[in-house]
Amino acid sequence: MSMLEISNITKDYGPSRALHPVSLSVHEGEFVTILGPSGCGKSTLLRIVMGISEQSGGQIRLAGKRIDPLPPERRDIAMVFQSYALFPHMSVEKNLGFGLRMKGVPKPERQSRINHALDICNLTGLESRMPRQLSGGQQQRVALARAIVMQPNLLLFDEPLSNLDAKLRDTLRHELVALHRRIGATSLYVTHDQTEAMAMSDRIVVMNAGRVVEIGTPLELYRSPRQAFTAGFLGQTNLLSVTAEGRQARLPWGQAVHLAAPAMGPAQISVRPESIGIHACGSGTVDAAAPATVASVSFMGASALYTVSVGDTLLKVSQSGGDPLIAPGQAVALTFSDHLSPLADQYPTEEAA
Ligand code: ADP
User: Fold this and answer.
1) What is the pLDDT of residues 311-337, one digit of tens each?
2) What does the buried/exposed string (b/e) look like for 119-146 if buried means 16 or more CB atoms within 10 Å of the residue's CB?
3) Which residue's CA lies nearest to atom 27 of ligand 1?
4) Interval between CA 248 and ligand 1 midpoint (Å)
5) Which residue minimizes the CA distance to atom 22 of ligand 1?
6) Relative to the CA of 41, which ligand 1 atom is closest?
7) What is the dihedral of CA 68, 74, 75, 79, to 10 degrees?
């Protein structure tokens, strides 16, 4: 069942449009991430869902009920901010209890909910500390516990890990995923970090310039993106122009490849560096379909990343780090995986959506 339903939300700041009609849904218990570059409208959308910013058009439903006319405190939503936004003059316990008191939750229930939230967020023993006596990671855990304790219908996260150093971010990311598995709270998470989105999400909503570009599971969007923007934003890729005839296509240098979905005429495909096999020529066993030469190689440990030139095209090719390295200048043969997906021509426009 769809828990959150965002329908045709728009936002104008004066004459400039920050959100074109945006529609998406989050199912009950699902963890959905909005991913996009800075300025694409992620926070604007999240703030509208929370009720701290007003939309210019469109509707929002939560658990079947229209919520966009309601003030934030009546929406049954809790939000975790990038800046933690803890009450600085209140202890951890009081931070957690504040919202419950406002809501009129009786004291015994309040205490048991606080204890449970402290427990699942690894904060037991820190209840009487003030926020300034906590590390950044602990403060972010308190912010999370304060959201969870409300048992909301929806949890919103606005880049909650981006103020933390890389190692702590990694730890908290794992904790968040484990926590989500345990409590199953319907969650909408905003980030510009594609690794974070890939690692955490059931589904990702890719946004650019105030529009939803594409929605899918991390695997779908990585393996078979429909949009060039998605392909380029989620990891590295090679965008190649091909001439397609059904499931067969010809690369710019004439080499034949198989497509995962049929296409006709000129088309664009996204080819991940690891979807290309690289084989040294000259041993007599490998025939190159086209003259290709290694331009450069970077050894990355788990893999080696090559730049290979074929005619006018420069390709990024990744090879498992265990394989012997091929030196720059060496002639190579390239092989292509069978699940190359043709891209759609352009973003779906609101008229077409
Ligand atoms: P993101 O969260 O993806 O970085 P935002 O939602 O913060 O992007 O911003 C989307 C667009 O709206 C940007 O172009 C930004 O400059 C603009 N914007 C955000 N807030 C305001 C505001 N209060 N007044 C005018 N423009 C704004």
Assistant:
1) 889 999 999 988 889 999 999 999 999
2) ebbebeebbebebeebeebbbbbbbbbb
3) 13
4) 43
5) 13
6) 6
7) 120
